């Protein structure tokens, strides 16, 4: 157990210490900043379209750190050393997903508030956005680690990784943005169900992909 | 003599090439075996098979104790000072800082404790990886070219560490393309198997 905690902190330290953390958050805020310039400062229009834009920006921001989640550990031999010590690949994947969910999800939710303000979202909608994204973060982290593991052996893996993630993440986009629609009352439950499914599958699928890296 | 590692009728295929087949060996407590042979003879593959990192095409690998591995990567975080990078593996292996102290002493790295891994030379990095192996306390050492980049003094320390490990009941599987001055060393010529 102490070993897994050490592993978790190492991933978190590497995420926050390298500055790579700020890239997706900055990207997220940039999209939110650029959007009003592109569609004009019409507050009712921004309010209507902005919520969906926050979701799109969050999803795309989740794709950015893919290339540093697994490949550096594989290249440095860290994954081999962990495998030699008998850690199951699924456990390693679960720890990585947990660390990524915290390391990436927390700042994303914090950045959500200025982004939502830029897009003229009122407090009710901000609350729904924060709830929705908080529900989606574990699933996004699962998908990110999965595609990072699948593409760690390939050059330009993060581009392929994005293609892998997007179709799987689309249901969350639909239900997450659907929460903002006054008629979308069941959307939060569907979002939670989708997120739960992806979060549960993640460690097993990513674990299998990590095992595949050794062959 | 207790057996720590047993390899039975092992075959290894990499790509489309059969590297070796029908390979059997056993490592007892205090034993050491030198895998020798030219590049591409399958020394590293055998080490990875013994570590459980590769699946054998045929045959059996049985490890009766914990394993410590050195391969071409140091597996130490480049941005961290040496001591903190080693402390991470000490926590993973659940050994105390004292074991790391002693191992750093054995490989004469104490004065580099605060130097970032990225600033270390190849030989120093190999010594650091060796500290990780010594501190882990694992009875089976799998060393793939541990002396690469090491100078004579460092090689002497490596040989001394191997001797101490064997005296404490450990076993060493050593892959090296050149001879190390390890006493009482069994040999397996991988080049002759192909």
Can you walk me through this structure?
Chain A is an all-alpha fold. Chain A has one domain (2-213). Chain A has helices at 2-17, 22-39, 43-63, 71-75, 78-84, 89-118, 123-151, 157-178, 187-213. In chain A, helix 1 runs parallel beside helix 6 (89-118), helix 2 (22-39) runs antiparallel to helix 3 and helix 2 (22-39) runs parallel beside helix 6 (89-118). The longest helix of chain A is centred in the middle third of the chain and has 30 residues, at 89-118. Chain A is elongated.
Give keywords:
heterodimer, A: 215 residues, mainly alpha, 9 helices, elongated, B: 194 residues, alpha/beta, Rossmann fold, 2 domains, three-stranded antiparallel β-sheet, 31% helix
Secondary structure layout plus pairing:
The complex is a heterodimer of chains A (215) and B (194).
Chain A: H1 2-17, H2 22-39, H3 43-63, H4 71-75, H5 78-84, H6 89-118, H7 123-151, H8 157-178, H9 187-213
Helix pairs in contact in A: 1-6, 2-3, 2-6, 3-6, 3-7, 3-8, 6-7, 6-9, 7-8, 7-9, 8-9
Chain B: E1 3-14, E2 17-28, E3 32-36, H1 43-51, E4 58-63, E5 67-70, H2 82-92, H3 97-106, H4 122-136, E6 140-144, H5 152-167, E7 171-175, E8 186-189
Parallel strand pairs in B: 3-7, 3-8, 5-6, 6-7
Antiparallel strand pairs in B: 1-2, 1-4
Helix pairs in contact in B: 2-4, 3-4, 4-5
Estimate the mean pLDDT confidence of chain A: 90
**Can you tell me the residue ranges of chain A where pLDDT is under 50 for at least 5 consecutive residues?**
none
Number of discrete helical segments of chain B: 5
Biggest pleated-sheet summary of chain A: none
């Amino acid at each position: 157990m102490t070993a897994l905690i050490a592993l978790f902190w190492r991933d978190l330290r590497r995420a926050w210490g390298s500055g790579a953390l700020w890239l997706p958050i900055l990207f997220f805020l940039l999209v939110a900043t650029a959007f009003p310039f592109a569609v004009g400062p019409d507050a009712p229009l921004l309010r209507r379209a902005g919520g969906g834009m926050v979701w799109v920006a969050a999803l795309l921001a989740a794709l950015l750190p893919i290339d540093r989640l697994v490949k550096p550990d594989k290249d440095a031999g860290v994954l081999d050393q962990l495998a030699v010590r008998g850690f199951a690949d699924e456990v390693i994947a679960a720890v990585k997903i947990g660390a990524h969910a915290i390391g990436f999800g927390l700042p994303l939710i914090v950045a959500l508030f200025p982004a939502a303000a830029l897009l003229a979202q009122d407090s009710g909608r901000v609350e729904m956005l924060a709830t929705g994204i908080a529900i989606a973060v574990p699933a996004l982290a699962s998908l990110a680690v999965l595609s990072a593991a699948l593409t760690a052996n390939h050059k330009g893996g993060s581009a392929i990784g994005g293609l892998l993630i997007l179709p799987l993440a689309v249901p969350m986009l639909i239900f997450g943005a659907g929460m903002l629609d006054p008629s979308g009352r069941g959307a939060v439950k569907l979002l939670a169900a989708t997120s739960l499914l992806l979060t549960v599958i993640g460690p097993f699928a990513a674990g299998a992909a990590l095992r595949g890296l050794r062959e | 003599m207790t057996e720590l590692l047993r390899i039975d009728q092992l075959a290894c295929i990499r790509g489309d090439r059969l590297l070796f087949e029908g390979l059997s060996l056993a490592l007892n407590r205090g034993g050491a075996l030198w895998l020798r042979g030219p590049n591409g003879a399958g020394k590293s593959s055998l080490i990875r098979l013994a570590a459980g990192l590769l699946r054998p095409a045929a045959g059996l690998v049985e490890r009766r104790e914990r394993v410590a591995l050195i391969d071409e990567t140091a597996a130490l975080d480049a941005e961290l000072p040496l001591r903190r990078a080693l402390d991470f593996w000490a926590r993973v292996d659940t050994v105390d800082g004292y074991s790391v102290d002693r191992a750093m002493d054995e490989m004469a790295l104490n004065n580099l404790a605060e130097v970032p891994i990225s600033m270390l030379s190849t030989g120093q990095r190999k010594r650091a990886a060796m500290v990780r192996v010594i501190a882990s306390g694992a009875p089976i050492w799998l060393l793939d070219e541990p002396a690469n980049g090491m100078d004579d003094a460092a090689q002497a320390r490596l040989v001394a560490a191997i001797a101490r490990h064997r005296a404490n009941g450990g076993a060493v599987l050593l892959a090296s393309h050149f001879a190390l001055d390890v006493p009482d060393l069994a040999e397996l010529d991988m080049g002759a198997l192909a």
